[in-house]
Design goal:
Length: about 300
């Protein structure tokens, strides 16, 4: 009997890595995760192998990838944060991704599935999108067989931050401000669809860059209105200039001890960075998902920063 193929996934106790690992296990794969979140809950028990991810120990990284059928790379940081015990940023994330590419080459990884972001661009003023574009170019030149998967905003599951916390604010605040006029479009992707896209990409051989987008397109305002309706809350939804949205975000961040939103995230959403207009690879309908989650969605605030403390 031949052994099940080994897939190495970063961050299986985090968000998308958790769903990619679950999808791979359901397909009969052997799964190993590389993570620094050993303290977080492990929903897989001994069904997956757990290795720490230490960017200063290349030999250990190469060994943890050796013989892998595929490496699924979710590793990235959401913003620059230079404070106390939680010190991280885009420059370091770019350097660490580069180390992962090099170690994957040395370990002879068969296929590299790399999560980037929709509309990554080297011309962007946002370090997130610039860093992602730079890494796409480096991966393309690395000699690895690759699939670059570019998600728009990801939703679904109790670990989700953005959509869950919008729901939390709708439940708890009397007024909700949409960025600008709220007319920027989004095409969100369900996290289980994303996991399926990554698992499928691992089995292909040719190099590719694919947008991971769902079947629904709506404006930010339409999405928020749809969420409020589904949850049965009536809220005043008002257009908000960026400076006011950022100021309100800072006040909330102070009380919630988190970073609720950044200036770049506001302008990114307003400039349709989470919209592609390309063929949807996801099949989950946002409205059907909303209907099934309307009673639980946004009941709890998901504190992103506390996960890194
Ligand atoms: N979430 C979205 O809506 C969205 C949208 C577009 C693109 N993406 C891309 O999809 C990928 C996965 O995103 P995700 O939201 O699923 O991420 P995530 O699970 O929160 O984190 C993914 C990985 O990055 C590591 N990581 C995250 N923040 C870190 C920090 N501050 N310091 C050190 N390590 C950190 C995690 O390490 P641990 O294993 O130690 O937790 C994990 O291995 C990323 O490349 C992201 O850019 C996400």
């Amino acid at each position: 009997m031949t052994a099940a193929p080994l897939h190495v996934v970063t961050g299986a106790f985090g968000y998308s890595g958790r769903y990619i690992a679950a999808e791979l296990l359901a397909r009969g794969a052997r799964v190993r995760t590389l993570t620094n979140s050993l303290h977080r809950d492990n929903p897989f028990g001994d069904k997956i192998e757990v290795h720490p991810i230490d960017f200063n120990d290349r030999d250990a990284l190469v060994e943890s990838m050796r013989g892998a059928y595929a490496f699924h790379n979710t590793y990235w940081v959401r913003y620059n944060h230079k404070k106390g015990s939680t010190d991280f940023g885009y420059d370091e994330a770019v350097k660490n991704n580069r180390i992962l590419f090099e170690c994957a080459v040395d370990a002879g990884v068969r296929r590299f599935v790399h999560l980037s972001v929709a509309n990554a661009s080297e011309d962007s003023t946002w370090g997130y999108f610039r860093g992602k574009a730079l890494l796409e170019k480096e991966l393309e030149a690395s000699g690895l067989s690759y699939s670059i998967v570019r998600p728009t905003v990801i939703y679904g599951g109790p670990e989700n931050v953005l959509i869950n916390n919008i729901a939390w604010m709708l439940r708890h605040l009397p007024v909700f401000g949409v960025f600008g006029k709220g007319d920027a479009r989004l095409t969100p992707i369900h996290v289980e669809d994303l996991a399926r896209i990554c698992a499928d990409a691992a089995d292909r051989d040719s190099n590719e860059v694919i947008n991971a987008v769902g079947p629904d397109t709506f404006t930010y305002r339409e999405m928020v209105e749809q969420m409020a309706r589904a949850m049965g809350v009536r809220r005043l939804i008002v257009p908000t200039p960026d400076w006011l949205a950022l100021a309100a975000g800072k006040v909330l961040s102070f009380f919630l001890k988190d970073i609720v939103i950044t200036g770049h995230e506001i302008s990114g959403l307003r400039n349709e960075s989470m919209y592609t207009g390309t063929e949807p690879l996801g099949t989950t309908s946002f409205s059907e998902w909303l209907e099934s989650e309307k009673d639980t969605l946004g009941r709890r605030f998901v504190n992103d920063l506390s996960r890194r403390r």
